[in-house]
Amino acid sequence: MPTGIHLRDARQQLFDAAERVLLRDGPNGLTSRAVTDEAGCAKGVLHRHFTDFDAFLTELVLDRAAQLDRQAHTLREAAGTGTVADNLTSALTTLFEPVPVAIIPLITFRDELRARLRQAKPGGGIAILAQVTTAISAYLTDERDMGRIAADADIDSITLSLVGGGHLLFADRDPDPPTTATVNKLVTTVLTGVLPQQPRRA
C-alpha cells in the first residue's frame, strides 16, 4: 500500500492540515483519516508522532494557544498608544481569527480533549477562550494603571463582555466575518462610561 509523501516537518504539516479540515468540515469532520488525507501522507505518520488522535488534538490546541499568547504580548505592548477602543478592536479581530474560533467548538465537542487540556494546563479554563480572556484583562489593567481607563472600572466584567460579545460576533461568520466597524461598535459600547471624558471644544 502507498505510504504517502515524506513530510519534512510532520508535526507542523499535520497541524496545518487539521486546521484546513476544521475550517472546511467543522469538528465532526476532523478525523485522523481526514487529517492524513489532507496532508497527503499515510495514517501511520500521525501515530508515529502522537500516541493517539486525542493526543494530536491536544498538541494542536496547545500550539494554537501559544500563538495567542504571543499575540497577547503584542496587545500589552500597545497599552498607552493609539486609542483603547482601536487597540481592542484590532486585538479581538486578531485573537478571534477563523482557526481559534473553529477550535473552541472542537474542545466542547470532545470530552477526552477537554480532560487532556485540563491536565496540560490546570485551571486554564477552555483553551483559546482562556488565552483571549487573559490577554484582554491584562491589557485593560495596564490601560487603567496608565489612567486611560477609569480607576474604578470593573476589569473582569468588561473583559467578560468583550470576550463573550467578540466570540459571538466571530462565531457567526455566515457569510463573512464581522467588519471592523461592527467590532468597534461592540468595543465602544462596552467601554461606555469607563473612558476619560474628552474636554469639549469651545
Overall description:
The chain is mainly α and 202 residues long. The chain contains 10 helices and no strands. The protein has helices at 10-25, 32-39, 43-49, 53-77, 84-95, 98-109, 111-120, 129-145, 155-171, 180-190. Helix 1 packs across helix 2, helix 4 packs antiparallel against helix 5 and helix 9 (155-171) runs antiparallel to helix 10. The radius of gyration is 20 Å and the shape is elongated. It starts with 9 loop residues before the first helix and ends in a 12-residue tail after the last helix. The model is unreliable at 1-7 (pLDDT under 50).
Summarize the structure.
By secondary structure, this protein is mainly α. 67% of the residues lie in helices and 0% in strands. Helix 1 packs across helix 2 (32-39) and helix 5 crosses helix 10 (180-190).
Properties at a glance:
single chain, 202 residues, mainly alpha, elongated
Overall average residue pLDDT: 88
Helix content: 55-70%
Number of strands: 0
Q: What oligomerization state is this entry in? A: single chain
Which structural category fits the helices and strands? mainly alpha
Secondary-structure map:
Layout lengths: L9 H16 L6 H8 L3 H7 L3 H25 L6 H12 L2 H12 L1 H10 L8 H17 L9 H17 L8 H11 L12
